[in-house]
Amino acid sequence: MYLQTDSQRLVVLVRGEPFMTYAYGPGRSPAVDVLCAADNRQVAGCNNGAPAITIGHSSVNQVSYLDGGLGSIEPHEIIVRRGIYSAGFVHHLVWRDNLRRGVIAESRRLRVIAGPCEGGILDLTIRLTPLLSTGVIFAADGHDLLQIHLASSLFSTQIGQMRDEHGRCGWEEVNGRISRWVSVDGVVRGETVGIVVLDHPRNPFHPTTWHADQLGTLSPSPIIWAGVEEILTKPVVLRYRVLTHLGYVEAGWSHARFLEYASEPSNENFGD
Q1: Going by DSSP bridges, is the β-strand pair 181-188/191-199 parallel, antiparallel, or unpaired?
Q2: At residue 30, does pLDDT exceed 70?
Q3: Distance (Å, whole) CA 128 – CA 256
Q4: Which of 5, 53, 157, 262 has the most neighbouring CB atoms within 10 Å?
Q5: What is the pTM of this model?
């Protein structure tokens, strides 16, 4: 496990190969730019210029916090952590509206470890704390908090497949349905690779409803499908696990990874 840093990005290597690049330079929202399976086979990111994993929302108190929106997600302290078997960091941020008022304090923790099937595991934990005494309103809009943008080389292949824990296949069947996990398999540079996204059982609205579309967007999205606004008046913590793998895996493999994730103790340390 190895982590490289500079003034605008962090790169985490698993088994000596690039696994994840996190960018937080000026003029953009911090995001996971690239996510790879073994042998640098990209499974998410750079699909129509989109990062691999984005955190934001298109309407918080009627202000968009996506790139190009009136709101901004301002990076603050980043705390890097390296261990023998893991590497990661905690990033503290502030969501500011078009009047530059602080609306939400966010802490996101990303931890990477080596995974089975020559893959990597990314644990992503997000804590949102409202800074306004009246709370903040998340509209039931078209972009939920966390979105994964699958690489076109993975998602557009004719033998690629998206599926959930109930055996539903294809983005049309996954979209708008409830599941504890969703997986995507495809062929990248002649090898079958895949990605699995797990929703933690302690998350609000678990098991979540998912958003998926023909552009390769995948998102655990409880707010969109609730059909009503969500008012955040106290801190909330959301947890997700993203795995990559080399080779084809059965649905039972993905479900076993969910059970492992669900049984692990939760780490509440955000480096405050």
Answers
A1: antiparallel
A2: yes
A3: 29
A4: 53
A5: 0.94
Which H helix or E strand runs over 263?
A: helix 251-263
Domain boundaries, the chain: 2-263
Q: What is the CATH architecture assignment of 2-263?
A: Distorted Sandwich (2.70)
| Nearest C-alpha neighbor of 42 from the set 13, 14, 19, 12 | 19
Q: Which two tokens stand for residue 147?
A: 């979105």
Number of helices and strands in the chain (H, E): 4, 19
Dihedral angle computed from the Cα positions of residues 38, 45, 74 and 24, in that order, rounded to the nearest 10 degrees: 50
Quickly list DSSP for 127-150. EEEE-STT-EEE-S-SS-SEEEEB
The helix or strand, by DSSP H or E, that contains position 155, with its residue range, turns out to be helix 152-155
Kindly state the tokens that stand for 138: 């998340």
Mean of the pLDDT values across residues 29-51? 89
pLDDT digits (tens, 9 = 90+) for 56-78: 998 899 999 988 889 999 999 99
- The single residue listed with the structure tokens 């947890």 is 239
Contact 32, 21 (CB under 8 A): yes
Distance of CA 12 to the CA centre of its chain: 16
